[in-house]
């Protein structure tokens, strides 16, 4: 069930969303120059990704921000930026450019700390925009619950289906929780709790934005 686009066009040019996407691409292009040297690439991830266990001896303040612009491979960055493209423009419409930027950054940081709650001693760097993008998706659920997500579904043959955004995003959130619990048992390389934390943050901020938009 892969999302292709939503049914609500953006009213303004999503400048900040484009800048975030472009910045992620630029950083990934730099990463590609390091792929020939595994030691250099690992050092890049370790220095600019967020390593939870570092907090106990030297809090990596810079990594609070840099971790959300680093990706571990082609599938990682393409998947993340595709979701940001679909959901980010409308949320930027609702919040305005500057507030959307602040929301995106704080959402990524909230998602990071939610991940740390479940992985406080992890020696592995957390990288990726998915925590911040999950916050965008949570806000989208609250602000545009009436939207529909046109998705590609594979069942014998691929076909398109319009899924109500409230159903699509709620099921996505539940899957992050279930996958997070499964990962706690088996261990995976995906930060599902960061996804869940970001989504919760987005829902909370989304309700606040909706209240200001429609009650005043």
Automatic annotation (TrEMBL):
What Pfam families does the database record attribute to this sequence? Rhomboid (PF01694)
For membrane topology, the record states: Multi-pass membrane protein
Occurrences of domain Peptidase S54 rhomboid (ranges)? 63-211
Keywords per UniProt: Hydrolase, Membrane, Protease, Transmembrane, Transmembrane helix
Species in which this protein is naturally found: Fervidobacterium gondwanense DSM 13020
Q: Membrane-spanning regions, if any? A: 15-36, 56-79, 100-118, 124-146, 153-178, 190-209
GO CC terms in record: membrane
- Source organism superkingdom: Bacteria
Q: Which InterPro entries match?
A: Peptidase_S54_rhomboid_dom (IPR022764), Rhomboid-like_sf (IPR035952), Rhomboid_protease_S54 (IPR050925)
Location of this chain's protein in the cell: Membrane
What name has this protein been given in UniProt?
A: Membrane associated serine protease, rhomboid family
Citing just one GO molecular function, the answer is: serine-type endopeptidase activity
What SUPFAM superfamilies does the database record attribute to this sequence? Rhomboid-like (SSF144091)
GO BP term, example: proteolysis
Question: Which family would the database say this protein is a member of?
Answer: Belongs to the peptidase S54 family.
């Amino acid at each position: 069930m892969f999302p292709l686009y939503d049914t609500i066009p953006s009213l303004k040019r999503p400048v900040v969303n484009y800048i975030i996407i472009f910045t992620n691409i630029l950083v990934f292009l730099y990463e590609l120059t390091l792929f020939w040297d595994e030691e250099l690439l690992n050092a890049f991830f370790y220095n600019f990704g967020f390593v939870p266990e570092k907090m106990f001896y030297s809090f990596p303040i810079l990594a609070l921000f840099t971790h959300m612009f680093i990706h571990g491979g082609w599938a990682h960055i393409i998947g993340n930026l595709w979701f940001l493209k679909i959901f980010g423009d409308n949320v930027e419409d609702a919040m305005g450019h500057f507030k959307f930027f602040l929301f995106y950054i704080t959402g990524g940081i909230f998602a990071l700390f939610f991940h740390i709650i479940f992985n406080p001693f992890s020696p592995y760097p957390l990288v990726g925009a998915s925590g911040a993008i999950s916050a965008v998706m949570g806000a989208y659920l609250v602000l545009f619950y009436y939207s529909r997500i046109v998705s590609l579904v594979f069942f014998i043959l691929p076909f398109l289906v319009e899924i109500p955004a409230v159903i699509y995003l709620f099921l996505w959130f539940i899957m992050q929780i279930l996958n997070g619990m499964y990962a706690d048992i088996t261990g995976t390389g995906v930060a599902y709790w960061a996804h869940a934390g970001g989504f919760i943050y987005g829902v909370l901020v989304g309700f606040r934005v909706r209240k200001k938009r429609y009650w005043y």
